[in-house]
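Quick start: what a row looks like.
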Amino acid sequence: MELKDSVIAITGGGQGLGLAMAHLLGGRGATLALLDVDGDALDKAVSGLHESGIEARAFLVDVADETSVKQAFADIASSLGPVRGLVNNAGIVRDALMVKAKDGKVVKTMSVEHWQQVIDVNLTGVFLCGREAACQMIESGKEGVIVNISSISRAGNMGQSNYAAAKAGVVALTTTWAAELARYGIRVGAVAPGFIETEMTASMREDILDKLTNGIPLRRLGQPDDIAESVAFIMENRYFTGRVIECDGGLRL
């Protein structure tokens, strides 16, 4: 797909990976619709993109809420035109062991609340935004691309039952949608990042971060631009669909 003048929506676009994607895709001529639950981050992101000569608009949305998602995508279509690309990037973590025990006694379990919060944002949010984007692409009669952000943790990771399940579900959605939407000229791909240098990894204890980094064959964390480049590849390669790009420095969980 030609990125120039295409309307690309990015969820979680106000910071981190989403903002890196915005700068790269916008730098190649895309018109950006940034969606986020954090209004302040959105305003700062759009201002920075404008300073770089990139056209972008902010849309406040809770991706886990159907009404909010429908309204946001309707607003995008009315102000910028129908989306031709979507990056489902928004996500949260609520890490905990499913069951934690000491001396044969259970002392803590993962709460249903934390399970559901992650599933709602990281999986249901992908479904809701993907559905709205696909509707606009089909009705516009133009080819489109949906890129879902999964994770290396989709294979399973201790302390992340909720996150791993959601990210595995994202891959299942990717392959399912690729089969369903190909007839409309819509391609669907996924990127599974490994450990990336973001605000979240920056807050980790130094010893834990060192141990994590030493386990990566390339001996370094990935950069947000590495993931952005993977997203751009899927967007621009017209024969890529139904597959996952693992961008993890060679790490396999």
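That is the whole record. The beta strands are 7-11, 31-36, 56-60, 85-88, 99-102, 105-109, 144-149, 186-193, 244-247. The CA atoms of residues 2 and 236 lie 6 Å apart.
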